[in-house]
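Database export, one record per block. Field names are fixed; values are copied verbatim from the stored entry.
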Amino acid sequence: MRGMTWRWLAFLLAFWASASAQPALPAFRPIAASDTVLVVSPHPDDESLCCGGLIHAARSVGAHVAIVWITNGDGFKWDAIVVEKKLRPRTGGYLELARQRQAEAREAGVRLGVDADSLMFLGYPDRGVLRLLLDYYHPNTPWRSKFTGANAVIYDDAVDPGAPYSGDNLVKDFNTVLDRVKPTLVLAPSLQDTHPDHRGTGLLVWRTMTARGEQDRVHYWLVHGGRAWPAPHAYHPDLAQTVAPRGLGMQWESFALDSDAIDAKLHAVMAHQSQMKVMRKVMLSFVRSDELYSTTPVPPRSSCAHALVCEQSDGTWMEEPGL
């Protein structure tokens, strides 16, 4: 027991030393009433973890905010085990999980003050976003989810119900959202994120916004930023967020949160009860005194899509070693 206590103390001392050594980050620009913010979330819960404080702040000054979820989170096995109470969830368990997570996402949006008609779901397959963009862009046979068994969007309230699972349909539906929302600011996951759906979503936003000549409107965030990040895994709203290991070298800016924004973000995170049952401490560790956003999707000489091909600014392809 004494050895464990000393190891824990050593960890805390190392964490505080690392946090105190982080140089001050430049401030994120103020959100104005004339802004229209689009949060692009790979799964239900990411919108609250990455951006809940900024969403609340934007709504507080009268800015319009919209959220689009790329998937309904219908491929998270541990969650499905909890929902179905079986070690081997069936297709119905994953579909029930998707319905629950979608309802939680809507509730989180309400808690952050987002209008109901500004909450949109694309309904593409959890754990399949990156594959759609890289290997199933124009497929002869659409991607099939090994969790739900579906090969097309199966949710009636999606942007395009029945759309076959393919990269070109995903891009088309995302462009539909952009045309509808007309954002002045887009918040999207970095291609450095270790989760393939996050990398795929970042790639989707990067490529689409670049094609539209609007890449300067995008800021990037990380949720899966490296082992044991954010540290410590606990609720510490008094602490500033630290730059994730996967985000080192990116151009980060700090968006400071007041007490109202912190409380709103906490309540939005708590709306995701299916996730809280599985990883409560990790989720609460994203409620800090600020949120970090980068003007660049990757650091210099990045692995981009983590050992997979990624795209340069001129549209050509490159291959770099993974981390």
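Remark 1: The chain has one domain: 31-315.
Remark 2: Residues 31-315 form a domain with the Rossmann fold fold (CATH 3.40.50.10320).
End of record.
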